[in-house]
């Protein structure tokens, strides 16, 4: 019996690992929030699309203002919200996600050990402005995922997803000097209490994006910032 249980566990792990590799779906539905014509996939940056203006002296910037998160481009699938029992609460949910995203990015830079930027309350001529847009959200379905691990593996279409686009502006000239875009799906895991709430997966992805932006801000020449794994080792 012990050997049989071990075999079952190995099969589950293999299935989850392979499903996790496919968790990062290509972000195609880009908006005019960013200029997609100049953005490319860069191996040194963990986002699917990026553009950084050449010749910018980033050392001149000391301040960072994180603007209110733009949700006007947000693509909402009504059937998802209805199936997730959130129909009628869309505006409330969108406001919560926008507020959480802005707080997560501010907190990530405040906790930066390198103190690369000083968070300011208004755009500064000595800093940059980070403008974020949430362009897609698929809420989690806690009731469906309560079926357990077997259902989780069998139903890979039942994934929570979120997409974002970002612009970095020169605080003095207002010129866009960097742009990013990414789409992430929830990570695979054996047991995950995030399945029990509507937006825990979205929150985790947003926090990860914020940390990655901090890493990009501290990036050294030729340094490669790798993307995170598609497997979640933390169930909470």
Topology of this protein?
Layout: H1 2-21, E1 49-52, E2 63-66, H2 78-83, H3 90-110, E3 118-119, E4 127-138, H4 142-145, H5 149-154, E5 161-170, E6 176-185, H6 200-217
Parallel strand pairs: 2-3, 2-4
Antiparallel strand pairs: 1-6, 4-5, 5-6
Core attributes:
alpha/beta, Rossmann fold, 6-stranded mixed β-sheet
Count of folded domains: 1
Shape: globular
Distance between the termini: 30 Å
Give the beta-strand count.
6
Uncertain spans: 5-23, 142-155, 189-196
Q: Could you report the average pLDDT, rounded to the nearest whole number?
A: 78
Q: Main β-sheet: number of strands, strand sense, barrel status?
A: 6 strands, mixed
Radius of gyration: 19 Å
CATH architecture: 3-Layer(aba) Sandwich
Residue share in helices?
A: 25-40%
If helices are DSSP runs of H or I spanning 4 or more residues, what is the number of helices? 6
How large is the share of residues in beta strands?
Answer: 15-25%
Sketch the topology as an H/E string, one letter per element: HEEHHEEHHEEH
Question: Any idea of the CATH topology?
Answer: Rossmann fold
CATH class: Alpha Beta
Spatial strand order of the main sheet: 1-6-5-4-2-3
Structural class: alpha/beta
